[in-house]
Amino acid sequence: MTARRTGSRAGFTLMEVLIAAVMLAVGCIAILSCMMQCQRMMLASKRFESAQLVLQLGEMAHPIPDPSQVTTSGEDIMNDELLNVRETPAEDLVRELEMELPRTELEQLKDYTFERTVDETDDEILQWNGGIYSIRSTVRWGGSNYGAKREELNVIKLWRKKP
Fold this sequence. Notes:
With 163 residues, this protein is of the alpha+beta class. The chain has helices at 14-61, 90-96, 103-108, 123-129; strands at residues 85-89, 113-118, 132-141, 151-160.
């Protein structure tokens, strides 16, 4: 007896299955890499949001004084206690302001610090620009883990001491 052929084949060849598996794997890898990138961006956004909060806390705890309150001038302004704020942990700022923050939020601010300094400027430039100083508020975070990079956010404001 002879076997009859039906003329149409049933199923997929091995090569078709392998090509489909490779295409599926490439698609899965692309999706996973996008998800990892999205997670990194969300974490960076969260850190930056915390840095903005610390900047606001620092400015509330140590506002930039009115020029009439600052009695020093010239080179001494760069060391003035009202304008310059030493590096202060965020938890200390919260305590100074007597704020009640949830424990989870306080833990997020653990490695953050606030600092404000007057940038050095020589007298010739001060005469030329009319006595305008630049005040740099800096928030630093990170670096507590071994090998972690310390990041910072700088905000520069102009402040004028009238002669």
